[in-house]
Amino acid sequence: MKDVDKNNISVPALANNGIPRHIAIIMDGNGRWATKRFLPRVAGHAKGVKTVRKVVEACIDRGVDYLTLFAFSSENWRRPADEVSVLMQLFRLALGREVKKMHSNNIRLKVIGDLSKFDAELQAMVRNSEEKTANNTGLTVTICANYGGQWDIVQACNKVLADKDHVGNVTEELIAKNLSMAYAPEPDLMVRTGGESRISNFLLWQMAYSEFYFTDTFWPDFGEKALDAAIASYQNRERRFGQTSAQVTDANCVRG
Ligand code: IPE
Ligand code: IPE
Ligand code: MG
Hints:
Helix content: 25-40%
Mean pLDDT: 93
Radius of gyration: 19 Å
CATH topology: Undecaprenyl pyrophosphate synthetase
Bound molecules: 3-methylbut-3-enyl trihydrogen diphosphate, magnesium ion
Number of domains: 1
Structural class: alpha/beta
Shape: globular
Largest sheet: 6 strands, parallel
Number of helices: 7
Low-confidence stretches: 1-14
């Protein structure tokens, strides 16, 4: 429901009962969660996969349309080789185990990032999972794997430049259209667990107007209640998109 004001900026009524349409999460703190318990870091990653399952279910229950999860950044290759290898293995296992269930829950699965760095088998698993769930109409879950916000902007520009029909300058619209998550609206709410207050090269372009929520809770300890606390914080924000408070009649106007 949108009312368009005379400056052509969309100011909708509180959409979707105040539930963010798109939540993006930096799932951080797995290693520290494990270390605190005298466990190997990878035990934290394994527990983190279980949290993903819980949060996906909670998002479905709450009517969220898009959930985007930062699983492996383009900088995470800098970690010790054995940790990287376990992370790849967990990704493979999770894809193998969860996709059938996701499909039966009407979830559309997407994976974004520079997948060319993954082995051929994993790339094929990703493609098959995306194809299997492509026509599902429920929650869209996007996994960011070997993803970097800077990489995304550069690949979008390169796509524009490679288009033989393209003439003239690169524009904001053209970049937005060629980003790897162009199928989704921009995130309304960005959550980072694990206590750090930084973006770590996540969705740089798409988070221009996202509301940020940082929590000390480590990702393996995150769950339904913690998600509700993040959503409650979001619901108390006034999204102004450059307008004044007086211009914004509802708490959740959208970017025009
Ligand atoms: C997030 O947890 C998972 C990935 C980055 C793959 P971390 O592994 O970064 O956990 P901390 O930050 O070291 O606690
Ligand atoms: C960000 O976490 C990436 C993911 C959660 C996948 P990091 O733990 O890699 O971030 P930094 O290195 O602390 O910034
Ligand atoms: Mg970390």
